[in-house]
C-alpha cells in the first residue's frame, strides 16, 4: 500500500531535512519520494516502481524531469552527506582512540597517537540497460554477471568503511572513447577516475586511510596518488606480474621472475597455515617483501586454499609500506583479505 510522505518516521525526517537547502520546494518533494520509494520498493526500481510506493499527487514525467533536467546540484548533495558522515563518526573515532590509548604499554617518552584505520574501497560495475537508446554514456561493457559484453553504463564506485559503518561515495560514469567522441566530452579512463577519487577523498580526522582495489587497478599512478596522500594501499595482483628476486649468480645480483613461476618453485615449508579472518577455515599463506615491476617496493601476499590445489587457484595481493608486525604472515594475510571489495 502506498505510503504518504507525512507518515515518515522521525529519523528519516531528520535525515532528509539536512538537504532541504539544496532543493526548491517541488524538488524537495521529489527528493523525498525517491528516497522513500527506494527503501520500500521490493521489485524493479524503475521510476514507475518508485512512484507506486508513495501516495503523493505527482506525475511520472515530473519525476523524470527532476532526475534529468531540474537545476539541483548532485555534487552539493554528495558533499553534504559526506560531511554528515564525518561529523557522525568523529565521536566514535575519538572513543576508539581512547580505548587504544589505554591498551598501549607504559614506556618512557611521549605516547604515540593511536590511529584508527578507515578503508577506501574502489571498484567498477556495469549496469545493464537493455532498453536504453537515448540515454547518455551508453556503451558496451563487460559484465561479470552475464559473462559477456552488454549494453549499459559502467560506474566507477567507491565505499568508505570505518569502524563497521559504511558511506558510499559519489559514483563516476565511465565512457568509452568512442562514446566520448560521439557525445563531445573529454575521455577519462577508469584509472584516471579512480585516481581523481583518491586525490579528492577527505577521511575522518584522526584516522589512517587504507585504499583497497582489485587487480584491474594495480597501476603505479594509483599507488603514487595514495602515497602522496600518505595513504596505505593494497591491490590485487595478477599472476603474470614480475617480481625482483635476489640472485647472487645474476650479473646485477638480482633478476626478474614472473609471479606464477615464483609461486611454482615454492616448497610446502614456505607457507604458513593461518585462519581465514572471521571463520575457522584455514588457508596457506606466503609473504615476501620485494619490488614489483612497474610498481614500488611492496609486500606480496600469496594465498592458497590447499597446497594440493592447482596453482591457477592461488590469489595474490600487493601491499604498500609493510609495518614491522607485517613480517608475520598471519597479520599480512588478515590485512590483505580486506581487499575483498563489498562492491562486487
Walk me through this protein's architecture.
With 344 residues, the protein is of the alpha+beta class. The protein folds into 3 domains: 64 residues, no CATH class; 145 residues, no CATH class; 102 residues, no CATH class. The chain is built from 10 helices and 12 strands. Strands 1, 2, 3, 4, 5, 6, 9, 10, 11 and 12 form a 10-stranded mixed beta sheet that branches. A hairpin with a 4-residue loop joins strand 2 and strand 3. The longest helix has 30 residues. The C terminus is likely disordered.
Query: What is the helix fraction of residues, given as a range?
Result: 25-40%
As a percent range, the share of strand residues is 25-35%
Mean pLDDT equals 86
Give the structural class: alpha+beta
End-to-end CA span? 33 Å
Spans where pLDDT lies below 50 across 5 or more residues: 338-344
Order of helices and strands: HHHHHEEEEHHEHEEEHEEEEH
Q: What is the total tally of β strands?
A: 12
Number of domains: 3
Q: Rg from C-alpha positions?
A: 24 Å
Counted by DSSP, the helix tally is 10
Could you give a short account of the major beta sheet?
Answer: 10 strands, mixed
Silhouette: globular
